[in-house]
Write a structure and sequence with these properties.
Blueprint (H helix, E strand, L loop, with lengths): L12 H19 L9 E5 L6 E4 L15 E4 L4 E3 L6 H13 L6 E5 L2 H7 L20 E4 L9 H11 L4 E4 L3 E6 L2 H22 L10 H11 L3 H19 L6
Parallel strand pairs: 6-7
Antiparallel strand pairs: 1-2, 1-5, 2-3, 3-4, 5-8, 7-8
């Protein structure tokens, strides 16, 4: 993948703040145990651009990521800023999703986090509405039920994009999950509570008793109750995570 040296207007204050937000997501994901070696990837479209995304520098561990070492990559896979490699599966998974939904899929988070991935590895694995956190995902989840190996070409990425459609959460069989959002806070809120919901589901499955589903009526009621406050709550949660980083790991802003 070629490196292009041209002025693209990506050195603005808004872009820097976007860098800080995504770096915070990487750092806090490590604290939550959502990382897997040097694999998996988060991306964020640049403010005002639908054709350029911030992406993690390969092969750095997520705990090493800072605002300044994030890459800028175009939708053809060219690195336009940064000094590390573009990991092929990151580009091939994220670019088609950003292209398909640039307004609502501004941020994409892909992990193999343990409990959500465990659900994805079950036969016909589905998120069950058995806990309050599960109800955050009513009508929000898509499923890709076929695993075809590493995503190393455009066809693989388009296949994922077709499966995800306009849903902000995707379970990928035998693989992991993706969450999307209009902001880093929104996508991270989904990632955090998805893992919490899947954890409850897996633990409830181990108790020997049948899981007790929440009725569709109550689930819809919870959706309505959250409808006016959900984005604000996501912002508040992510702000709290950043305050922890500011106290204990402030170099993410470098």
């Amino acid at each position: 993948m070629a490196v292009r040296n041209r002025k693209l207007g990506y050195d603005t204050e808004a872009v820097w703040q976007a860098r800080v937000e995504l770096a915070a997501a990487y750092r806090f994901a490590v604290r939550l145990g959502f990382d897997e070696g040097i694999d998996n990837h988060f991306s964020l479209l640049l403010p005002g651009r639908d054709d350029l995304m911030l992406l993690n520098p390969y092969p750095l561990h997520w705990s090493e990521i800072t605002a300044s070492n994030l890459l800028i990559v175009d939708h053809d896979g060219n690195r336009v800023a940064g000094s590390h490699e573009v990991e092929p599966t990151a580009f091939h998974i994220h670019a088609p999703l950003h292209r398909a939904n640039p307004e609502t899929f501004r941020c994409l988070l892909h992990t193999h986090m343990p409990y959500a991935t465990a659900v994805a590895c079950q036969e016909s694995g589905r998120l069950e509405i058995v806990h309050q956190s599960s109800t955050k995902f009513v009508d929000q989840v898509a499923y890709l039920d076929t695993y075809n190996g590493l995503v190393l070409d455009a066809d693989g990425g388009e296949y994922i994009a077709a499966a995800m459609g306009n849903k902000p959460v995707l379970f990928m069989a035998n693989h992991g999950v993706i969450t999307a959002g209009r902001t880093v806070a929104e996508a991270f809120d989904r990632l955090y509570f998805l893992e919490r919901a899947c954890r409850v589901q897996i633990l409830a499955s181990s108790g020997g008793n049948k899981r007790k589903p929440i009725s569709p009526q109550i689930s819809r009621r919870l959706v309505e109750q959250r409808s006016t406050a959900e984005t604000h709550a996501a912002d508040d949660l992510f702000a709290a995570f950043k305050r922890i980083l500011d106290r204990e790991e402030a170099d993410y802003k470098n």
